[in-house]
Write a structure and sequence with these properties.
single chain, alpha+beta, hypothetical protein PF0899 fold, 8-stranded mixed β-sheet, 7-stranded mixed β-sheet, 13 helices, extended
């Protein structure tokens, strides 16, 4: 029996499809080729049967690789644009809203907006979300959740149940019950209003998903990034820097703890890295292992000049093109909304932001076409609802450039 036929029979039931066949064929090829190389080393040549087997396996591996690269035909072909996307394109290009109205009426949308407009298709919303994750520094490191309501509530335990060791026959004292409280994260409206010419909308070569996503990305990302850092929680998310700050020695739940540099508006003349070490180790081990520094460009420029006692720079550039700079082996995220180094400024934040800061996205991005307000341009009033705030006050600490 042809060895390649045996391979095809062997992998016919594989769960991983073409990849499984390629990997199995490659393993068989390596085994046969190793045998050929061993024969050459031993006898200065390989026998014809083994050489022929290697050639057949090599050709079979090429066929499988080419097959895997071919476009999929039949039932697994790329999906046609959804009914929602087709109706959305008709609305954006020509203002025809009947299709979108019928779709939202049938679906009984959970994201009805009193200001009007229509939900963008899932494809467009996914493209906006993808670009936002890249453009918004804090969104990239925080915990992001989607909700279908205007308010997300999260219970938390302010005290844990009492526990202890007892003997095998000793009396078990009654343990104290958990004390629960509730955090609330309301979703606030964020909007952008890109403009287009009718000529652009009439151009069928223009991908409307990408165009809308790219137009609103910069506006949304800039507004979000500021709110997630310094927002006051009024008609916008509450930033992690806008909570009450207390010295780490007096920290309690509901506040963010800080460490001082011991010098007003700067680092100590000697042992500058000591304050950074204290900041890092103000976090518990469970948070520290996923820690990230957040600072402004000016603060990063100042820290870039610091060295440890061995003369090594504390800051290191990214090791790869798409990597991040690091400070004492922890990644650095740059945010222009963080304060610069100044007297008593909290210019540096460090923490496990995935556990510490929560971003709430309400499902659905809405768009309202306006061809009248700025003729000859067509405006697209685009809105999404976003909330945010600290969800674990033990996960984020700051460095204060002061003495107390």
């Amino acid at each position: 029996m042809d060895v390649t036929q045996g391979l095809e029979t062997k992998v016919a039931g594989g769960d991983d499809g073409g990849l499984d066949q390629i990997m199995t064929a490659f393993e068989a090829f390596k085994e046969a080729n190793d045998e050929r190389l061993a024969q050459i080393e031993k006898r200065m040549s390989a026998d014809g049967v083994t050489a022929d087997k290697v050639e057949r396996l090599s050709r079979h591996l090429d066929e499988l690789t080419l097959k895997a690269r071919r476009p999929v035909l039949g039932g697994a072909a790329p999906a046609e644009p959804s009914e929602h996307k087709k109706a959305f394109e008709a609305y954006v290009r020509k203002g025809e809203s009947a299709g979108l109205f019928d779709i939202e009426s049938k679906s009984m949308s959970v994201a009805v907006n009193a200001d009007g407009g229509y939900l963008v298709p899932a494809e467009t919303e996914a493209e906006i979300g993808r670009l936002m994750s890249k453009a918004s520094a804090i969104r990239a490191i925080a915990d992001v959740r989607q909700v279908s309501t205007m308010l997300y509530k999260k219970p938390f335990a302010t005290t844990g149940a009492a526990a202890g060791w007892v003997g095998e026959t000793a009396v078990r004292p009654e343990t104290a019950a958990n004390t629960l409280a509730e955090l609330q994260f309301p979703a606030m409206e964020l909007y952008a209003m890109p403009a287009a010419t009718q000529a652009l909308l009439d151009d069928n070569a223009v991908n409307l998903d990408q165009w809308i996503a790219q137009e609103v990305e910069t506006v949304f990302a800039e507004q979000e990034s500021e709110a997630f850092v310094t927002g006051d929680g009024v008609a916008r998310p509450k930033g992690f820097m806008n909570y009450t700050k207390v010295a780490q020695s007096g920290w309690s739940w509901g506040k963010t703890g800080y460490i001082t540099t011991g010098v007003s508006g700067g680092f100590a003349a000697s042992g500058a890295s000591d304050a950074l070490v204290d900041l890092i180790y103000s976090l518990k081990a469970g948070y520290r292992q996923n820690g990230t520094f957040v600072m402004s460009r000016a603060t990063q420029a100042a820290i870039r000049k610091l060295k440890d006692s061995q003369g090594h720079y504390l800051w290191q550039p990214a090791a790869t093109a798409d990597g991040q700079a690091s400070l004492m082996n922890f990644p650095v995220v740059e945010s222009e909304h963080m304060p610069d180094i100044a007297a008593d400024a909290h210019a540096l934040a460090f923490g496990d932001f995935r556990r510490g800061y929560l971003i709430v996205d309400r499902v659905g991005v809405r768009l309202l076409r306006d061809p009248y307000s700025a003729k000859p341009y067509v405006l697209f009033y685009t809105t999404k609802r976003v909330g945010g705030g600290i969800q674990d006050f033990d996960a984020i600490k700051t460095l204060k450039f002061g003495t107390a």
